[in-house]
Specification:
Blueprint lengths: L5 E7 L24 E2 L12 H11 L4 H5 L4 E9 L5 E8 L3 H12 L7 E3 L2 E17 L9 E2 L11 H12 L4 H6 L3 E9 L5 E8 L5 H11 L6 E3 L2 E13 L12
Length: 261
């Protein structure tokens, strides 16, 4: 194995399937008990927040298995799955793999995905098959970066102290829907960027994409309240890592809010 230190870049691209439209004179009825798995429907299923949110989710959750990285194993793992009528994910399987551990990691991350916006046929939710390629790529670095450098992809990404669920709980417990946003009927996702420092503290907090009505300021306030993270690592050292989370404000959800999905 080359002695040069390595980092990894996890990227993804979604397969875009061509959609077809039924004749305007044709009428179809989707029965309630329809268990057919479709490949193309009128409205294809979508990751909550769209492709940019999908990229952020994969980037923040996939970890390059160390043993396979040391062997120089890299390439695309193609994962097939079904988006169910309620948006949940099922039937997760490897369509084409590159190695046992990389394949297992790709399956784990797909299984852990939040519920999707389900696909629809003739206005009714149906089961739809989908496929996602997850790319493992090793990038050689001839020397370690300066301590002040900010990384986006590192050997070990930063993590909230109690993991993804802990982060969800923290945001859900602390975010308050601004009265002004409620009055104006404002809802949507606020994307907040920040840097996780080598000591785990959070700095450089800024709104990357906002929705107004006080939601942007509320999202920043809550991120500033976060406890120290487990810092990211590159070249065996704790480093500064850029990070992004979406905080979701929804007016239509009954009961407790989930501000991340």
């Amino acid at each position: 194995m080359n002695s040069l230190k390595t980092i990894f870049l996890v990227s993804l691209s979604l397969f875009c399937l061509a959609s077809t439209q039924a004749s305007q004179t044709a009428v179809f009825v989707v029965p309630d008990n329809d268990t057919t798995i479709y490949t193309v429907v009128d409205e294809m299923p979508q990751f909550p927040g769209g492709d940019s949110a999908m990229v952020a989710y994969i980037t923040n959750n996939v970890h390059y298995p160390q043993t396979e990285k040391e062997k120089g194993i890299q390439g695309k793992v193609f994962v097939g799955f079904v988006v169910e009528k309620d948006g949940s994910i099922s039937n997760v399987e490897i369509k084409r793999g590159i190695g046992e551990e990389c394949d297992a990691e790709a399956v784990r991350v797909v299984k852990d995905m939040p519920a999707w916006i389900p696909g629809k046929r003739n206005g009714e939710p149906v089961r739809v098959s989908s496929m996602l390629p997850i790319n493992y790529k090793i990038i050689e670095q001839p020397q370690a970066p300066a301590d002040t450098a900010k990384w986006v992809f590192v050997e070990r990404m930063p993590a909230f102290p109690d993991g993804e669920e802990g982060l969800l709980d923290f945001i859900g417990t602390n975010v308050r829907y601004p009265e002004e946003a409620i009055k104006q009927g404002i809802s949507g996702k606020v994307f907040v960027g920040f840097v996780v420092e080598p000591d785990g503290s959070v700095s450089n907090i800024k709104v990357l994409r906002g929705i107004g009505g006080g939601c942007d300021e509320e999202a920043v306030r809550v991120v500033k309240m976060m406890p120290n993270w487990i810092p990211g690592e590159a070249f065996g050292k704790k480093v500064r890592v850029s990070y992004m989370i979406p905080i979701n404000f929804r007016l239509t959800l009954p009961g407790p809010q989930d501000y991340r999905r």
